[in-house]
Specification:
Elements lengths: L5 E9 L2 E3 L2 E5 L2 H10 L3 H6 E2 L3 E4 L3 H7 L3 E7 L5 H14 L4 E5 L5 H5 L5 E3 L3 H13 L6 E2 L20 H6 L4 E6 L2 E2 L10 H5 L4 E2 L2 H12 L3 E11 L3 H16 L7 E6 L5 H10 L7 E2 L7 H6 L7 H14 L3 E7 L6 H13 L6 E5 L11 H6 L3 E6 L16 E7 L5 H19 L4 H9 L5 H14 L3 H19 L28 H6 L1 H13 L6 H7 L8 E4 L5 E4 L9 E5 L11 E7 L3 H7 L2 E2 L7 E5 L1
Parallel strand pairs: 1-4, 1-5, 1-6, 3-10, 6-7, 7-8, 8-9, 10-13, 13-14, 15-16, 16-17
Antiparallel strand pairs: 2-3, 11-12, 18-19, 20-21, 21-24, 22-23, 23-25
Length: 633
């Protein structure tokens, strides 16, 4: 007897990312896991076909044209594909009115059910729930919600890489490079209210078989993988095991047949020396650095969001260890969180500098993720949360994508402790710290004021902020222009209709809200002498500024001939290859590390080797500053 198989289509559509002129796609790991798990069962293989896994943002008409007799369509949703998926579903239902639409993933809520976006909602881990749904469809007894218990033993889950799930995708795209999601464990013990990770996977962390992890990494060498994203919420929590995996990550990155450029790891939330050790093992040329996420430095805020940061002394010590190891560390902050005030925000950023975080600070708008506690009615009422729906908040532009439908997410625009006007002022205070301090322009002057003149970072940058607000320089003009853009975005939720642009900046209409603070990186660099003059003028109001400190400050940045802006806050640069690494020797009246009044000679040269400049081409990440190294001679 011949069985008529039902067609099941799976979708995890994501942005293409252009890297060095090559289009990079994430392999659709989530739906790959569903398929790999389902196809191991004979009854599933006998009754269902899985003709294609969809992973690109293509024209919906093109997608639907490739589909035949669709019975079930499953979608893995998050903030970067929800609206595209909804538009795609509209087109699918026009052709296949009886199709069953299944939603899973973090970005699914009751609103999707109420709006008839889906027929079925898988609320927990997908593998077993998805198979149960398929079997129920055979009995014509599909339920609206599947929320089975967590999977106790991850050994039961086959790898989509090792079972050949992605082989057809890779074969069909010979000119593309792919990013790989590596999951070595599953679960998060933290319940931060702004995050949907812990709420979706519960507290207990469960491990994948180590042999499976090693085999997947070996697979990455033999396939066109350029980037590995380690999807663990807290890599490093299992010290010995994760150090062993770090050695394997280094092995695959340095293997002569590997095409892997970088590894991104989400470290254990309260990072310890283990994180530094792991980053060193992976190798600074491959590691994207250590994220020392603090979210806020305010005790009341941390209590409100159920977050505990490490002691400030421990944070200071850990940052010092990353500097000694030559490992980039960056800290993430979120604006505005419950109970944060404009004053506490400014103080918190200054405290980060006091802890030694001078390398990189990433500023995020507070997103109201569908399954996070902070989105609940109780939290909204308690903290007076006002929200705004914004378009394409973290959008990465690519000509390969179909982008007629923008992605949307709700963000916090105000709370009962920070008005919308104060949120904008706080954001621009962050703009100043990111653009003028962590990028290197005023670091030496600010440290001199802190360590020699006994002036706090808060005092120094409060004066710089006032100068930016009220000054008449080109830097003040750029600052106020961006502030107006930020105000517009926080009022309208997009950039449409805003006419304000700068010659160094990309077209705002194709920009993304997350990168507003990065839009002036080139503007500031091309007017760095004005920045130096502002800093010197402010510093002199606190006391005498040694002339050699001024000289050192003006040698803070590499000698780049020209800088422009690219997508997602990246920068294009041109350099003189013959003189790039020559360096220059200067004498300073102070030791710039200890700030003792000891005459010290320095060889000053770019922190980025010429080989790296040439290897990555013109594009440089927004976090990658062009600060010079000061090497004692």
């Amino acid at each position: 007897m011949t069985v008529t198989k039902q067609n099941v289509y799976l979708f995890q559509c994501q942005y293409a990312i252009d890297v060095r002129g090559v289009t990079n796609y994430y392999l659709p790991y989530s739906i790959g896991c569903l398929y790999a798990y389902a196809k191991q069962f004979a009854d599933i293989r006998q009754n269902f076909n899985f003709p294609e896994l969809f992973f690109k943002r293509e024209d919906p008409a093109t997608v639907v044209a490739r589909m035949e007799d669709a019975h079930i369509c499953g979608f893995s949703n998050y903030v970067w594909n929800e609206q595209y998926h909804i538009e795609l579903i509209r087109c699918i239902r026009e052709k296949f009115p009886d199709v069953v639409i299944v939603f899973g993933g973090p970005q699914v809520g009751q609103d999707n059910v109420d709006n008839n976006d889906c027929d079925v909602w898988i609320q927990q881990e997908g593998e077993r729930n998805f198979v149960n749904l398929l079997r129920d469809s055979l009995a014509e007894d599909i339920k609206p919600i599947y929320d089975g218990e967590r999977i106790d033993d991850l050994v039961d889950l086959p790898s989509p890489y090792l079972t050949g799930v992605f082989d057809d995708i890779i074969a069909a795209h010979p000119d593309n490079v792919f990013s790989m999601t590596l999951e070595t464990n599953r679960g998060c013990p933290f319940m931060c209210t702004f995050c949907d990770w812990g709420s979706l996977t519960y507290a207990k962390i469960k491990k994948h078989d180590l042999e499976k992890v090693v085999s997947e990494l070996d697979w990455s060498i033999r396939n066109p993988i350029g980037y590995i994203w380690v999807a663990d919420a807290n890599f490093g929590v299992f010290r010995q095991r994760d150090i062993a995996i770090a050695h394997m990550l280094n092995y695959v990155c340095t293997h002569p047949e590997s095409g892997i450029d970088a590894v991104n790891v989400q470290y254990y939330k309260n990072s310890t020396e283990t994180a530094v050790e792991i980053a060193k093992i992976i190798g600074k040329e491959h590691s994207r650095g250590i994220t020392l996420s603090v979210q806020s430095m305010t005790t009341e805020v941390l209590e409100a969001i159920k977050r505990t940061n490490m002691d400030l002394n421990d944070l200071n010590d850990l940052i010092a260890k990353t500097n000694e190891a030559g490992v980039l560390c960056y800290s993430e902050v979120i604006l505005p969180l419950p109970l944060e005030t404009l004053d506490s925000w400014k103080t918190g950023l200054a405290e980060l500098l006091e802890c030694g975080q001078h390398s990189s600070i990433e500023m995020w708008k507070a997103q109201l993720l569908k399954n996070s506690e902070m989105t609940s009615g109780d939290s909204v009422e308690k903290y007076g949360i006002e929200q705004l729906t914004v378009s394409d908040y973290s959008y990465y532009q690519s000509e390969e994508d179909w982008n007629e439908i923008p992605e949307k997410i709700n963000i916090i625009s105000a709370t009962n402790t920070m008005s919308s006007e104060e949120v904008t002022k706080a954001y621009m205070y962050g703009w100043m710290i990111i653009n003028l301090h962590t990028q290197g322009y005023l670091q030496i002057l600010a440290k001199y004021c802190r360590n020699v003149l006994n002036v706090s970072y808060r005092q120094f940058y409060d004066k710089v902020y006032a100068e930016l607000m009220d000054g008449t320089t080109e830097i003040s003009d750029a600052f106020n222009s961006t502030m107006r853009i930020e105000q517009y975005y926080m009022k309208h939720g997009d950039f449409k209709g805003h006419q304000e642009t700068e010659s160094e900046n990309e077209d705002l209409a194709s920009g993304a809200g997350h990168f507003i603070a990065s839009r002036d990186l080139a503007t500031v660099f091309n007017r760095k002498n004005t920045v130096y003059e502002i800093g010197e003028r402010i510093a002199s109001t606190f006391g005498h500024v040694d002339p050699t400190i001024i000289k050192a400050t003006r040698h803070s940045l590499a000698d780049i001939e020209n800088m422009g802006m690219g997508a997602a806050g990246s920068r294009t640069v041109t350099v003189n290859q013959e003189t790039w690494e020559q360096g220059v020797t200067i004498d300073v009246a102070y030791d710039l590390d200890t700030w003792e009044h000891t005459p010290t000679s320095y060889l000053v040269k770019p922190s980025i080797p010429l080989s790296t400049i040439l290897e990555v081409g013109a594009m440089h990440h927004r976090r990658q500053g062009f600060k010079n190294l000061f090497i004692k001679t």
